[in-house]
Amino acid sequence: MAPVGELRLESSPETIVGGWGFEEDILTALGEADKLIAAEGNQFWFTGFYDQLPGVDVPDPDSLELVRTDDWSLRTEVLYELDPDLFATDPNRFISYYGADEGDISEINDSIGPFFGNASRRKRGDDWPTWPGGESYPYYDIPEFVSRYGALLGKSETAAAINTLYEQALQEMRSRVPPVSDRPTVGLLNAQINPGNEGFFRAYNPRTEIDKAYGKKQYRDLGVVDAFEGEYGGQSGIQVDYEALLDIDPDVLVFHFGINYRDWNGEDALRKTVEGMRDSSLGQELTAVQEDELYVGGSAYQGPIINLFQTEMLGKQLYPDEFGEWPGEITAGELPAIPEGEQLFDRDELADILAESSGGTDSQ
Which Pfam family name is an example for this entry (predicted)? Predict the structure, then answer.
């Protein structure tokens, strides 16, 4: 896997450091989540979807040690104390985000454990570091990640089964998306940022320059009609106030990271954003508010399992005539379970694959 190249382990890792939720979801799919002992961040690993898969258990994200401080510095001493067998993350994130330098990463890689990961959530900036090769490196899509981690961890058969179910389910959903003329316009807003706490909303471009980027994959797969198209000026998002929202007046508002911000530092930040919009005299003029077309959005840190659930969720929110209505109230405490006859992928088949993946390696 770029950027680290080929990695071969003498034995299956017993302890793993994860990332921000994406790598954790892949490890869950491969039956390896119980080996997680630490992570770069735990706020964005949403584990609620696993509750809908019988027999699937994962660590409480809050139980994982953090490898960074609150001010985003690397906790090097903690890494030595943990002594993990594998860092399931892109080493260049440690440089870009946490102030490490290339020498630090080389020492961690040689003295503690190897890295195996690739930052493909969104386009990397021009100043993105390139340890160890010094050259830019490619992006991977979700099935490519699953295959590579599966090969490393001795779970190639499991990876193939996950990828088959995943790609078939998504292809079926994509094939049923209504024609553009029948799709609503969508405004994708940050679930936490609002005029009450920041003085503005933040609207995101649901498309990304990188086709393989996974952060907003469901919006791309389901052909979202972006209400703010042409307004971004080359940026991934823009600040908008109520007047700008009213000028655009999207048919539907989806709150990006909404599932994460339901419980953020002890408060429901999504609820505060939505209720503030409903209480505002300007917010009440928005079509999406009047028609109650306000929806919880997914996490950007989504591997194959989370992405399946979040694509299904978005399909029902935007295209209920085709996929059936999303039954959830945006300010409800729990995400709803979809009735069996209205599900867009087979939970039992997925759960069976995950059950078979738990414990040991594939027989090959």
Answer: Peripla_BP_2
